[in-house]
Structure formats: C-alpha cells, structure tokens
Specification:
heterodimer; A: mainly beta; 7-stranded antiparallel beta sheet; 6-stranded antiparallel β-barrel; 23 strands; B: alpha+beta; 8-stranded mixed beta sheet; two-stranded antiparallel sheet; 10 strands
C-alpha cells in the first residue's frame, strides 16, 4: 500500500439516471442536437432549451448490437480485414413520474388528450364530442392565454387545457411544436375540428384566471399559441395499445455524477418501440435490477416476463408491467418505455451513428 | 479521510448559510452557520446548543467492489440536533424540529460535493467528489415531559440515562447517513 496516489480516482459513480427529451422535426427528420461543448455541463434540474426534463428514471438499460465480421484470406484463412455489420441499439427504462410526455413516450403512438364533453355526449374511450373550443386571442403568450371577458369564465383554476389550431383537413403531421400524430386521411379522423387538440403536446394547467385571460403553471411547449389556436379543457390523458403513428424524439440520459465525472448518453433519434426484442450487449443501471422486460428477453427466451401464445402476427412476447413496492400494500406505478435508435449522420465525418456517449471528467481529475 | 470530512462539513455549512441565513450559532465567540463537527470542538466546550446540527463521525471501511487504484471508503456519520422551541411554553418544539428536519434534508442535496484539501491556501480540488446516501431520521425523542414513556418503552436503561442528562423538555433527533469517498491512499 502506498500513501501517495498514482492518480486521482477515475471511477464514475452514479445513483440514478435522469432523462431529457427534445422533439425531432418530423418533416425534415432533424433531431435536436446535444453539443457537449455548448451545453454539456448544465444543472440537472435546468436543462438548456429545448430539452425537457422528464425526471429520474429507473432500470435504465442500453442494448447495442453491432456485429463485426472478418474477411479471411490466404491458405490458412487468416483474418485480413474486419468490418461492421448492421447496427442496432435500443434503450429501455421505467419513468417514475407520470405526465403527458412520459405517458406519450411510454405508449409510443398517438397520445390523446381527453377533451371535456357535455353530459349528453356519446361515450367514447378516448373522448367524445367535446365542449366547443374557446378561441385564443392576440396578445397571448406561452404562459398567459387571452380569451376576453365573456369567454374566460369557461375556465377555472385547476383546469388542464389543450391549446392548438383547428384541424382543417390537412394531411401529414399535426401538432404545434411537436408532431403529435400523422393524419393520412381527413376521413379517418372524421374531419374533426378538434382532432389536433385531441393529440397535441401543447397542454397546460390553469393556476389563475384574470378578467380576460388564464395564467398557466408551466409554459406551453410550443411557445406562444399560433394564430387561430383555440383551447379546450382536458379531463384526462389516454394512451392506447395500438395505433399506427410512431413518435420520434431526441433523447439525452445523464448519470448523476456522484464521484465527479458526468456520463451522458445522447440518442439523436429515438422511436418508441415497446415489445420488440433485441440481441446484443446490455448495460443496466440501478441496484434493484430485474430480468429484462423486452429488449433482453430475446436473448434469454422463457423468462418470466415473456409468454408465447401462438399468434402468428405478434412477436409472441408479452410484456409484464411492474409496480415498485413502497411498503405493503403501497406501490408506485411506473411507465415502462422502450425505444429503438434511428440513424443519424455525423456531419464531422459523414459516419452513420445511433448514439453518442460523452464523458466529462471531474475537475482536476486524472485524464488517463 | 480528513479531506472528505472537511469537504462534507463545509458543504453542509455553506448550504445552510444559503438555505436559512438566520440559522447560526456562536462558537468560541464567532457566529457561524449552525453546523459543527463535535471532534473539532474543544473537549471542554459547552454542551451542544439548540437549533444547531452537530456532526459526529463513526466507523469507516474500505468498500468492496470499488474499482481503480484509489480505495472507495465509507464513513458513518451521525448528525444530531435538538430544540426547545421558540416560545416559553415550548409547545412549538415539534414544528421547529420539523423545520430542522427539512433543513437537514435540504442541505444534504445534492448528495455530493467536490473533495478539497483545505489544509492549504487556496484549497486544492482533489479531483473526485464526496458523496453520501440520504439521511435516515431516527425517532424524535423528548425529555422532561410526561409523554416520553412511550418513546422509550422497552429501553429502560437508555431512558434513565437520557432523563438524567436532560430535564429541560427538549426534543431531539439523530439522523444517520454514510459518506463515501475515494481515499488518498493508493491500493497496490
């Protein structure tokens, strides 16, 4: 044993992982860039815009499967050249906090705002014919929505509201700021004037009602409402097993740097992919590790979490949602999320990549 | 190890100064944020003051599984505090203790701080952090009042000592946590 250190400790120690998501421009497929030099070392509870803090997550697992092979030559078939095969990467974890974004990411498809209806409305699991929207007037901001004296009484403190433009038979992605759904045919959404507000991510909580406006607790994700936007009260959020739309987000995961060094995992394009299996290597976090829920299940068939049923069209892997026991009989419900990484071209060298891992050594820590 | 102790203590003291600047004590004539390390006080110093956090260090160990050259060490820590309340009738002792609980939990966040060598000036960043788990708050104990029997049921010996020591009606708390740090000693 020596009393003079060779070098300071270089062991990243973490307690938990924090998740940040930012929208991908679906029309141009442009992700939100995480530049370690520009915004790498930020306070974990104050991420730089447009990154959204989705809280601490549990059971963070990275799967990557980039097989390599060799070209052999010569009489003895010796390896001469190595090459990489098809690349694939996945991420899985559990959100511990529930909210619009967390539910939408865990669900992976259209995420519905259940608009408030009148008592006589026909019943519908994702919301029936809603109470008509109130037009948002000029002068509104991301935090304050102006309705005018007569209309503002439709809202009370505590209301959840959805704010977006009317659906006007357009085809393509809909939703201000963040693409919330893809409409392939106006008829499929019944030419519903309220459809955009049914799926929009532009939601907020009313904390104050003034003479002409409402004040929101958190700013609208799309900023000031677009011209022609309207607002409706939201009763609940609903996700559905099914749906044809695939969301796409940029994601950043940061290991809480207990020992000083910060490790970040940046995925330029992540698409929710619940239920799919993957081969490859896993990286798991969290003390209470449990058997893989989907990604790893493909490698270890027959785990408690998967069951085949003989249905041809499904992946024949059923996923079990767990709850986290607090103290019997209390338990907290998590939102299990699973994603597949989509490719991104690094402009520095034209290479196609799925994810980045960056490391910020602690101040004055040894470098190697 | 001393660097870790000093870094933890100063982090808590500085955080308390930011969280509640009014929470101060006078030690040896100097008014400082109300966090003190018992082993740093003169042996003959007065008994602990109310509404102040006193840090006591316990056992230490090398943690198995800490990779690298530097030993990952754990160091047990007890932080104790008590209050007599703010009014003569002392009926707000519980509320004040709750406030102290909140402040302790607050100054423990985030659960890490840079490790500095404070034996030199200016202090030197040693390149790693000191980190700890969340404090475990023991039951609040009272003394010199009628209702303390339940709190000490089955612990006759401790109760007798405690009541002998304090008959002033204080309520006190002990919070325990474990501090982790990479030792300056290199394992070979």
């Amino acid at each position: 044993m020596s009393t003079s250190p060779l070098r300071s400790a270089m062991v990243p120690v973490t307690r938990q992982m924090r998740a940040y998501f930012a929208p991908v421009n679906r029309i141009t497929e442009t992700p939100t860039i995480f530049d370690p030099a520009a915004s790498g070392v930020f306070a974990l509870d104050a991420p730089p815009a447009p990154w959204l803090d989705l809280g601490w997550i549990e059971g963070f697992e990275r799967y990557y499967d980039t097989p390599t092979d060799v070209v052999r030559s010569g009489a003895n078939a010796l390896p001469s050249v190595q090459f990489r095969g098809p690349i694939e990467a996945r991420v899985e974890f559990d959100f511990r906090e529930w909210g619009k974004l967390q539910m939408a990411l865990a669900g992976g498809s259209e995420h519905m705002n259940v608009l408030a209806t009148s008592p006589s409305a026909a019943l519908a699991p994702s919301g029936g014919t809603p109470i008509p929207a109130a037009a948002v007037l000029a002068g509104s901001t991301a935090n304050e929505l102006v309705f005018g004296i007569d209309v503002v009484s439709a809202f009370v403190v505590g209301n959840l509201i959805a704010v977006d433009v009317d659906y006007q038979q357009q085809i393509g992605y809909v939703g201000s700021g963040i693409s919330a759904a893809y409409v392939s045919s106006a008829a499929k959404v019944n030419n519903d004037l309220n459809y955009v507000r049914r799926v929009t991510f532009n939601v907020g909580r009313v904390v104050e009602v003034t003479a002409t406006s409402v004040i929101l607790a958190q700013p609208l994700l799309a900023g000031a409402p677009a011209t022609g936007a309207s607002a409706q009260v939201v009763a609940a959020f609903v996700d559905r097993e099914g749906g044809s739309f695939f969301q796409e987000w940029s994601a950043l995961f940061i290991a809480e740097p207990e020992s000083g060094g910060r490790v970040c995992f940046y995925y330029p394009r992540l698409s929710p992919n619940p239920g799919a299996g993957s081969g490859g290597v896993t990286m798991k976090s969290g003390a209470g590790w449990k058997p893989p829920k989907s990604g790893g299940a493909a490698k270890t068939s027959g785990t408690a979490n998967t069951q085949g049923n003989g249905t041809r069209s499904s992946s024949q892997k059923f996923l079990r949602e767990d709850s986290e026991e607090i103290a019997r009989p209390l338990s907290s419900l998590g939102l299990h999320a699973s994603f597949i990484a989509l490719p991104f071209t690094d402009t520095n060298d034209g290479q196609t990549v799925l994810c980045y891992r960056s490391y910020f050594p602690a101040a004055m820590a040894a470098v190697y | 190890m001393q660097f870790a102790k000093d870094s933890f203590f100063l982090a808590l003291q500085q955080r308390l100064a930011g969280l509640n600047p009014a929470r101060t004590v006078t030690i040896n004539g100097a008014t400082v944020p109300a966090v003190a390390v018992v082993e740093n006080l003169p042996p003959a110093s007065a008994e602990p003051q109310p509404n102040a956090f006193y840090i006591e260090w316990g056992s230490a160990a090398v943690v198995d599984g800490g990779a690298g050259n530097a030993a990952l060490m754990s160091l047990n820590c007890v932080i104790s505090y008590y209050t007599l309340g703010t009014v003569q009738s002392m009926v707000d002792r519980g509320r004040v203790l709750g406030q102290l609980d909140n402040e302790l939990l607050g100054i423990c966040q985030p659960t890490n701080t840079e490790k500095y060598d404070y034996t030199q000036s200016p202090s030197a960043d040693l390149g790693t952090s000191v980190f700890w788990n969340q404090p475990a708050f023991q039951e609040a104990t009272t003394s010199g009042v009628e209702d303390n029997t339940a709190a000490y049921q089955g612990r006759a010996v401790r109760r007798a000592i405690y009541e002998q020591a304090h008959q002033d009606g204080r309520v006190e708390r002990r919070a325990e946590l474990t501090v982790f740090f990479f030792s300056e000693v290199t394992l070979l």
